[in-house]
Amino acid sequence: MSIGLILEGGGMRGAYTAGVLDVLAENNIFLPNIYAVSAGACNALSYISKQNKRNYEIYTKYASDKRYMSFSSLVKKGNVFDFDFIFGELSNELLPFDYEEFFRSSMNIIAGTTDCMTGKSVFFDKNDMQDDFTAVKASSSLPLVSKPVKFKGMYLLDGGVSAPIPIERAIEDGSHKNIVVLTREKEFYKTKRDMPKFVLERKYRHYPELVRAMLERPEVYNNEKKLCYSEQENGHAFVIEPSKPVTIGRYCTKSDKLEELYDLGVEDTKSKLSDLRRFMALNSF
């Protein structure tokens, strides 16, 4: 039985996930199927290409770079995250991404996006990523600060809108044992909508189903999180989450705060390593 890896998004809170993945990689723990959205999908790329500490370098050296994320990028290009830089100069020159290893690897990524017309999740795997990782860009395109990404005849946005913790998709695919990496502490649950309804309806007046999905997101998030812990209680999941409250926002650019969160991911994963190995031994063959 194979074990799936579930990666939540959360914008720059993904620094926590980067720490978790580096510890997994250092201990030669590589999972065959990775279900990820948004920042989780971005982090998964370097995990699959086996480039340890690459995500760390991104968060601590380039997150504060205006070429990476800035208001000017939002004004000029319609995206607060400059994907031209991230998947261009950053991936090709500054921190070269190992495309060969990524596509040669037996590990698969199933990245979630949200269809603007239906408000429902659409997932893409590694076979859909030959085109400059457009699917991952779509998965990471946060509403209100990103323009929809056109891909395979659809207009897509952040996968975290419709499936913030894509454990249900993993289970549907037959992955009944999963390691789940969250970017918020266990006690955190959403109590309010991210944005007022009138703002969403004005911005996305041509996409009423997307507005519906965004309004329902707190309930969807909470239900998926509860499912993660229910699965853990039943022995079907192993959850790694921040052991301390996460106080940074999804657009944080402070390298010291991001490094601190990365370090927390490292520490939390190391502290659970024995239990994680036990879980894997019991559930795989």
Q: What are the key terms here?
A:
alpha/beta; 8-stranded mixed β-sheet; single chain; 285 residues
Commentary on this structure:
- The protein has 285 residues and is of the alpha/beta class.
- Helices cover 45% and strands 13% of the residues.
- The longest helix has 26 residues, at 208-233.
Estimated structural class: alpha/beta
Number of strands: 8
Work out the strand percent: 5-15%
The percentage helix is 40-55%
Identify the overall geometry. globular
Give me the number of helical elements.
Answer: 13
* Helix/strand order: EHEHHHHHHEEHEEHEHHEHH
How confident is the prediction overall: mean pLDDT? 95
Major β-sheet profile: 8 strands, mixed
How far apart the termini lie comes to 6 Å
- Rounded Rg: 18 Å
Low-confidence stretches: none
Task: Produce the secondary structure layout.
Layout: E1 4-7, H1 14-26, E2 33-37, H2 39-48, H3 54-62, H4 71-77, H5 83-86, H6 89-94, H7 99-104, E3 108-115, E4 121-124, H8 134-139, E5 149-151, E6 154-158, H9 167-172, E7 178-181, H10 197-203, H11 208-233, E8 237-240, H12 255-271, H13 273-283
Parallel strand pairs: 1-2, 1-7, 2-3, 7-8
Antiparallel strand pairs: 3-4, 3-6, 5-6
Helix pairs in contact: 1-2, 1-12, 3-12
